[in-house]
Amino acid sequence: MTATQPRILCVDDEPNLLSALYRTLCEDYDVTTAHGGAEALAILAREAPFEVVVSDMRMPQMDGAAFLARVKEGWPDAVRVLLTGQTDMTQAISAINEGAIFRYLAKPCPQEELRRTLESAVAKYRCDQNERHLLESTLTALVKTLTEILALATPWAFHRSSIAVACVRHALPRLRWRNPWIYEVAASLSQIGCIGIPRDVLIRDAARRPLTAPESKLIAEHPDAASKLLAAIPRLEKVAQIVRYQGAPPPRGTDPEVQRGAELLRAVLTLERNASLGQGGRVRQQLEAIYPALPDEVVGALADFRGAVSEMRIAFVAELRPGWVLEQDVYTTTGMLLLSKGHELTDTAILALRRQLACNALAEPIHVRCHAPARAEA
User: What CA–CA distance (Å, rounded) separates 72 from 296?
Assistant: First the structure.
């Protein structure tokens, strides 16, 4: 066995058949065996990922189709192969139609056919992983670009989304939800619909000052505007729906990931808007008072969060770091506004300031607020 061998999990309730599978495959694959579906699920929980899971159909307590359906739910990346006899054909076809398996093999299965099938399954796994990595790197770059645009165009909205991201990152390890990137991206882009809303309107809204009816309409519509923008981006469809329902419960029957993501986002934005973070109060009590319908698991995940403690300082451009917040408007020496007070600095913004300084178009130092890392309450 070498470190590069694909990992295969073989499942059968008959020890002799498992031993035969192991002898057939062990030279080319890293083979793990399990006596039945329950043992296999325990192995997957401890030792995943596996490239391929091969299961016999006829097993007591949990047949192969039911077991592979569980694998699809818990470890969807694993390519699933079902070994079945002629009498089990109806169930095998049903499993194929439900998407639980990649391929089925009729027993007794010739060794060469089994090998060809596993080669195809491993190739599919690796192709899927390569495509996922490509999409994720593309999405990461896209999300970073959108947040940079938000930071430059609407720093107040960007500051709010940054607080939401900090809360979500704190909660996700406790929630243990699948696809955590969906919820973090939704928090990052939750305020992208604020681009185009006048800065003074956003500031007055944040300060709870009166707005005109048209201004209130602009604020109320920004989640829908963001959702329409994000829905056009492949793989961000659920993110778009979470962002859309950040201010109101989604309709019944909504996808569970969207439902819980919207609840989490609405909770953290509610906390931020009510200045409930970083002021020594108990987040659990505040959440229960402000948002009593919030599920207990979300309340528990946020209960020990405290917002970042801030520190005022005067800094030179060379000292600036991403995440620091401007405490003054920054102008060029000719009087052009570069960045507004409240802008949370990003790599792009810092680079722009350095370029202006290099051209002698910027005066130092700059008043900023530095954020310490979020911490748990004592």
Answer: 28
Strand 375-376 vs strand 7-11: parallel, antiparallel, or unpaired?
A: unpaired
In this prediction the pTM is 0.62
Domains (range + CATH), the chain: 7-129 (3.40.50.2300), 154-305 (1.10.3210.10), 308-378 (3.90.105)
Q: Which pLDDT tens digit goes with each residue over 83-112?
A: 887 656 666 676 676 667 898 888 888 999
The number of beta carbons lying within 10 Å of the beta carbon of residue 228 is 13
HSE-CB for 287 with a 13 A CA cutoff: 25
In this structure, what token pair is assigned to residue 368?
């900023």
Start-to-end Cα distance in the chain = 50
What is the token pair recorded at 64? 């192969």
* Residue 318 and residue 293 in contact, taking contact as beta carbons nearer than 8 Å: no
164 — alpha (psi -120 to 50), left (phi > 0) or beta?
alpha
- What confidence tens digit (pLDDT) does each residue in 50-63 have? 999 999 988 988 98
